[in-house]
Amino acid sequence: MDTELLRTFLEVSRTRHFGRAARNLFVSQSTISVRIRMLEESIGAPLFVRTHKDIQLSPVGKRLVTHAESILTAWTRAKQEVVCQEEISDLLVMGGVPSLWEMLLDDWLKQVYEQFPKLGIIAEVMSDQNLLSAIQNESLDLAFTFDNPQISNFKSQEIQAVSLVLVSSQPKLSVSEAVSRDYVYVDWGSTFSFQHAKFFPDIPAPRLRVSVGRVAKEFLLRHGGAAYLPVSLVDKDLRARRLYRVKGAPEVTRSIYAISSTNNAKTGIIANVLEYLTRSEVIAHMPDKIQSIV
Fold this sequence. Notes:
Blueprint: H1 3-15, H2 18-25, H3 29-43, E1 48-50, E2 55-57, H4 59-82, E3 90-96, H5 98-115, E4 119-125, H6 128-136, E5 142-145, E6 154-168, H7 175-178, E7 183-186, H8 190-199, E8 208-210, H9 213-222, E9 226-230, H10 231-239, E10 244-245, E11 252-261, H11 267-277, H12 280-283
Parallel strand pairs: 3-4, 3-5, 7-8, 7-9
Antiparallel strand pairs: 1-2, 5-11, 6-9, 6-10, 6-11
């Protein structure tokens, strides 16, 4: 199967628009239509439900998304391993949820790259569900996530705890004011959702929900409001008094887990990388250790 068909399918499923998918892939809209039609003929079922105003995934299309992502990841990995440079002895495919990349994984990637000069690295951004599927089918060697899955053949290790604090664009707000006036709910995983509901059982449903902390921060700076964000992301804004800690708001601590498969042949490489990342001197330089301002 032509991998471009799968790549096109995923872009259309993400944008829900043939025109935007065409622009993002630098092809014509007619090319997008032809590719989707070819893929539907190959699958033997429609992948999208089209109306005059909207495009939605069909039941078959929804099931194909995870498989398409896994196939493309495996193909990318195969190409990397085949053409691997002589000075690169091993290849590690690692991934994490978007919010973790901006919080810590960007820095971790830099440190691992510098510490292991003979290690080739493929870095992926995925949803929790896709991360676990990729670990299961071994198209991903190492996943970083907020939640600890209790799945057989999965090995999980807590790497670090991070603090999420309630910040606002306005000083001296009470907790109740902050979570009811232009409050932005950031999805920090299922454990955070449970704790949030426990802390704030009676607040109105937020108008804005996002899955990426940086998006929430930029919204607060431009529009105003409040949100739970990691110390590492807002420390400079707190110091510059662009954002303010909300006094009295409960602080939420989230653990970051490294997930791998016990069947993965690269357990030695994974163990070496995780051993390095969990050393006290490495953790001490992580951005979440910056002192926050009240």
